[in-house]
Amino acid sequence: MDVSMIPLDYATLRVVWWLLLGLLLIGFAVMDGFDLGIAALLPVVAKTDDERRVALNLVGPVWEGNQVWLITGGGAIFAAWPLLYAASFSGLYLAMLLLLVALIMRPVGFKYRSKLADPRWRNTWDWILCGSGVVASLVFGVAMGNLLLGLPFGVEPATLRPLYKGNLFQLFMPFAVLAGLVSVTMMMAHGATLLTWRTEGTVADRARRAGIWLALICGVLFALGGVWVANLDGHLVTGGVDPLAGSNPALKSVELVAGGWLHNFARWPTMWLAPLAGIAGLGLAALLLWRGLAATAFLATSVAITGIILTAGFALFPFLMPSSLQPAQGLTVWDASSSHFTLWVMLLATIVLLPIVLAYTSWVYKVMSGKVSTESVSRNPHSY
User: Fold this and answer.
1) Angle CA(296)–CA(53)–CA(217) in degrees, nearest 5?
2) Dihedral angle, C-alpha 161, 28, 284, 220, nearest 10 °
3) Which neighbouring-strand residues pair with 321?
4) Does residue 203 contact residue 270 with C-beta atoms inside 8 Å?
5) Domain contains 25
6) How remote is the C-alpha of 195 from its chain's centroid?
7) How many alpha carbons fall within 13 Å on the CB side of residue 204?
8) Among the listed residues 68, 75, 65, 69, the one whose alpha carbon sits nearest the alpha carbon of residue 28
9) pLDDT range class, residue 195, cuts 50, 70, 90
10) 179 near 29, Cβ under 8 Å?
11) In the prediction, which pLDDT does 5 show?
12) How many domains does one find in the chain?
């Protein structure tokens, strides 16, 4: 097919796929975030075996479908941003392995914790589920924090092969850990609101109290992170970029500027709505939980998650993966994508398939609506 026949130019398609990648990340954080948050909160909100079964059976029927958002995001990176996939999935291999182990332990915990009635057996799996929720949430946040710090990699000019020169421990710098704590508290607050909304009795009461504090703590940490970002060296592209040219990250020039990650917010002031949504959503969630309006609080935490992820994306744009080792070879929207034709074909497939996925997901949640209680769990022979 002649690319001149494609109705969207190469630059536009690159931005569209940057937006779709953000949508997939938001979808994962909102849909699978409460799974991770509830697992992390398990020892806090559920003290007895019956209470923990209530919490687990709230997410048990849907967690697998929710995790598809993460798999789809990985697939989109592989197909739409191959250089980003190569640099992140190979250079961050140990971090990805840590995340993978945490995510693998979740289905094992869900399936096996109720196979035996032995309290020690079940308590062990409950703590494994809790750890998996905390570790996965932390790694996601640490990864985002490291993008703002820049990762130690370069690109081999002749082959465009990413060359990573860091190690696992270098990822856990103070700012990255702060970003990880934002992620953990954000997911836990999101999970607490769902528990408050969809359960009853003691579990809901504990989740409500925890959710109020977690939302407030997350808001404070997010604001602190924003102040920190304002003092970081941001990466600004100063030349050598052609949005319509083929991908080659070795051709541009980049300058490090103090507070440079706020450049886009100064250029497009409407972007400030993203961090405002993050702060306001968390504050509103705490207020709504305090007033007992859990369903609306869940919408508020969803808005907060959206705002926090958009804030990071807007700050980084056009960068996908900045380089601290060789800033001029950081990966951007304009030089790390697949071909014009590939992006167009993938977009057509997305237009067809994404509405089907959303419709099916909506139907599943409608079928699974209603509160989960000790009585409903005991009546269902298929419950965890």
Assistant:
1) 45
2) -40
3) 331
4) no
5) yes
6) 20
7) 17
8) 69
9) very high
10) no
11) 66
12) 1
* pLDDT tens digits for range 76-135: 888 899 988 888 887 788 888 888 898 888 888 888 888 888 889 989 999 999 999 999
More confident residue, 37 or 170: 37
What confidence score (pLDDT) does residue 2 get? 56
- Contact partners, residue 323, CB within 8 Å, separation at least 6: 150, 151, 152, 153, 154, 329, 330, 331
Buried b (16+ CB within 10 A) or exposed e, 107-142: eebbeebbeeeeeeebeebbebbbbbbbbbbbbbbb
3 within a domain of the structure (yes/no): no
Give the Cα-Cα-Cα angle 38, 40, 42 (nearest 5 degrees).
65
Amino acid at residue number 283: G
Tell me, yes or no, whether 382 lies in a domain. no
Domain interval for residue 54: 9-370
Give a yes or no: residue 4 inside a domain: no
Residue percentage of the chain with pLDDT more than 70 = 98
**How much is the pTM?**
0.93
Q: What span, in angstroms and rounded, lies between the C-alpha atoms of 206 and 203?
A: 5
